[in-house]
Design brief:
378 residues; alpha/beta; Enolase-like, domain 1; TIM Barrel; 2 domains; 9-stranded mixed beta sheet; 3-stranded antiparallel beta sheet; 15 strands; 38% helix
Length: 378
């Protein structure tokens, strides 16, 4: 079996004026990503996602990957990430290179799963996993005026028992947002906060101390991803676990996070970290050092599917039934038709449980009409 065709498909969706949302850094109106479709001489098709702009993905594929991927055996997928670090030399750590590697890698694993008639998580991890616990990413900063508690109340009404909210504007508003979220979630709900790298270390530490009483599961990106020493400073100053990884690409960046003891949780994004092959290696490094793994997801349905399959394969080491710590999977509650509309059978997180597809490969079927509707290259 070998790959005979490769297609990049940019997709996007825009929010109306006045309906922007985001984090403490800025508002956004556009969601955009790039899908990649591989076909083989056996008729099997694989899907991946490069979480990067379409024109850059297309150019990177054409310049660096197409010649080697066309004719490639999908089962040789794990050589792809290694090759990307050495050929061309010095380009491997680039976000756009790793985004393209991610898309090709995931599409190959999709094909492998289909050829073996097994879901990807069974190939990666070997154990059965039927469901995960979704957490709602919500309480975004928005252009619209709305009651602060409304979005997290909606998530609770949908059955979510865990949520991650945006903070990072200043300590006073951080405390207000956290207090509100905790009141809505109740004492038993799991609550995480995301600063999106908007603070200097002393500011992040100030907020960490101020919100500690609200039983926070983790603080995400307290400082910018480049601020290695800042992560160490924040981690040393608080007992709240620290998480990061959405803006880290490839094994070497994650190895530094883990080796420096800068975080308690790594969060690879399957559309940028190097795909399932790199994510598996990252998870092995992390769990070996007793660091938790929770994938980051701000993707289309394809990236979501890859993250679910990956999450279902990750070991819960060192925990046993005596310390229940279910794998949490991110499910953002903003408007996202690139996830909701793109599949023939969309993911459903309601009721506090998210099913892991058991069909071969990623376990998804693309709605071709929806795909054409959101294409942005025509």
């Amino acid at each position: 079996m070998h790959i005979t065709d490769l297609e990049t498909i940019p997709i996007s969706h825009s929010l109306p004026d006045g309906h922007g949302l985001g984090d403490a850094r800025s508002f956004g109106h556009d969601r955009a990503t790039t899908l990649l479709r591989l076909e083989t001489d056996t008729g099997l098709e694989g899907w991946g996602e490069a979480f990067a702009p379409g024109r850059i993905v297309e150019a990177t594929v054409a310049e660096l990957f197409a010649e080697d991927v066309l004719g490639m055996d999908p089962f040789a997928v794990e050589s792809l990430a290694v090759e990307s670090y050495t050929n061309p030399y010095h380009f491997g750590g680039d976000v756009f290179v790793q985004s393209v590697v991610s898309a090709i890698d995931v599409a190959c694993w999709d094909i492998i799963g289909k050829s073996l008639e097994r879901p990807v998580h069974r190939i990666l991890g070997g154990t059965e996993c039927e469901s995960l616990v979704p957490y709602a990413s919500t309480m975004y900063f928005t252009e619209q005026e709305r009651p602060l508690e409304e979005p997290i109340q909606e998530a609770v009404d949908e059955g979510f028992t865990a949520a991650k909210i945006k903070i990072g504007a200043n300590t006073d508003t951080d405390v207000e947002r956290v207090r509100t979220a905790r009141e809505v979630l109740g004492d038993d709900g799991r609550l995480m906060v995301d600063m999106n790298g908007n603070y200097r270390p002393h500011q992040a530490i100030e907020t960490a101390h101020a919100i500690a009483e609200y039983d926070i599961d983790w603080i995400e990106e307290p400082v910018p991803p480049e601020n290695d020493s800042g992560y160490q400073d924040v981690k040393a100053a608080t007992d709240i676990p620290i998480a990061a990884g959405e803006a880290h690409y490839g094994r070497f960046a994650f190895k530094k996070l883990i080796d420096n003891r800068a975080v308690d949780i790594v969060q690879p994004n399957l559309g940028r970290c190097g795909g399932l092959s790199e994510a598996r290696l990252i998870a092995d490094m992390a769990t070996t050092e007793n660091v938790a793994v929770r994938p980051h997801i701000w993707n289309s349905a394809v990236g979501m599917a890859a993250a679910i399959q990956f999450a279902a394969s990750v070991t819960d080491y060192p925990h046993t039934r005596n310390i229940p710590d279910p794998m949490l999977i991110e499910f953002d509650r903003s408007e996202n038709p690139l996830r909701e509309d793109l599949l023939e059978s969309p993911f459903d997180p309601s009721g506090g449980e998210l099913d892991v597809p058991q069909e071969p490969g990623l376990g998804i079927s693309i709605d071709e009409d929806a795909l054409e509707r959101y294409r942005s290259d025509e």
